[in-house]
Amino acid sequence: MTLPTTDPDESHRAREARTGLVYGLAAYTMWGVFPLYFKALAHVSPWRIVCHRILWSAVFLGVIVSLRSEWRWLWPAVRHARNLGMLVAGGVLIALNWLIFIYAVTTSQVLEASLGYFINPLLSVALGMIFLKERLRTGQWVAVVIAAAAVLNLAWRGEKLPWIALALAGTFGLYGLVRKKVDLPSLHALLVETTVLVPVALVGLAWLPTSKPVGVPAGFTFGLLAFTGVITATPLLFFGAAVRRLKLSTVGFLQYVGPTLQFAVALLAFGEPLDPAKLASFGLCWIAIGVYVVDSLLKHAPQPVADRPE
Questions:
Q1: For residues 246 and 20, what is the distance between their CA atoms, to the nearest angstrom?
Q2: Do residues 236 and 68 touch, judged by C-beta distance below 8 A?
Q3: What is the phi-psi region of residue 213: left when phi exceeds 0, alpha when psi lies from -120 to 50, beta otherwise?
């Protein structure tokens, strides 16, 4: 009797996929519960929070790159003016994204922020069509149109234009577009992007007024602000580890974990109201995501192999 043998390569790939899934879920879970962290800093100006986040992210990322002895990898990417210009543009876009998100959290508008991140992948598809001349499949067109209807519904039936959702989706979508132009790992790219903004952050910290909330120790507040560097880099490292181990289609599906958790935090932890206009827009957005996911699954489904003549 012959016992079945296990292919070592297949077992290794299965272990790597499971490990990648854990890393991916960890990254998107951290991004999803970020509102809980920044809510604890609601007594600090969003501008000061962003300045601290830029400064401490650059410091923490610099430490990581030093420990990994990877500084030599940065020079080939930044010695060209075009690449450096792209990274500066990326730094400005990601800083604006951070600012708008923190503003949304500190002003109790996390629901609208989560809507923006639900829309973001579909906006990225549209940006690829406009700037990269990518051709959209029918399913992608349908998903983009439904997502646009979600935004128009909220603008028409809501109290105001959902500018937070649009700004978050727009800045992050454009950030992804800019980053696509520079062949540099996310960790190294974010280090350059934050480092070039450190002088601006230092000027901001020197000139922006500080808040003195009653009952909140200054040391506790400073600790939270300094730790923003760690919470910025850690999910990025997890994400990088996940991308190396998972199929891109799997990573694409995981990206909806973040806004789903933000949606839950807004409702369950912060008690934000979900009025009919917002609910309808979220419903349309979820339908659009469903269409997009089904289209992606059909695109990557294995094709039947025709019988070959013997």
A1: 6
A2: no
A3: beta
One-letter amino acid for residue 10 of the chain: E
The Cα–Cα gap between 113 and 104 comes to 6
Domain assignments of the chain as residue spans, ordered by start:
17-299
In angstroms, how far is CA 107 from the centroid of its own chain? 20
Burial class of residue 174 in the structure, from the number of CB atoms within 10 Å of its CB (0-12 exposed, 13-18 middle, 19+ buried): buried
Residue 268: DSSP 8-state:
I
Query: Other CB atoms closer than 10 Å to residue 151's CB: what's the count?
Result: 21
**From residue 5, how far is each of 10, 12, 104 by CA, in Å?**
11, 14, 55
Contacts of 205-211 with C-beta under 8 Å, sequence gap 24+, read 205/48, 205/51, 205/52, 205/55, 208/45, 208/47, 208/48, 208/51, 209/45, 210/48, 211/43, 211/44, 211/45, 211/48
- What's the predicted TM-score (pTM) here? 0.86
Contact 140, 288 (CB under 8 A): no
Angle made by CA atoms 249, 255, 261, in degrees to the nearest 5: 150
The rounded distance, in Å, linking the Cα atoms of 56 and 224 is 11
Query: Could you read off the pLDDT tens digit of each residue along the chain, which spans 310 residues?
Result: 455 555 667 777 778 888 888 998 999 999 999 999 999 999 899 999 999 999 999 999 999 999 988 888 888 778 888 888 999 999 999 999 999 999 999 999 999 999 999 888 888 888 888 887 778 788 888 988 998 898 888 888 877 788 999 999 999 889 888 888 887 888 888 999 999 999 999 999 999 887 666 567 788 899 999 999 999 989 988 887 887 787 766 777 788 889 999 999 999 999 999 989 889 999 999 998 888 888 877 775 544 433 433 3
Alpha-carbon gap, residue 269 to 263, rounded angstroms:
10
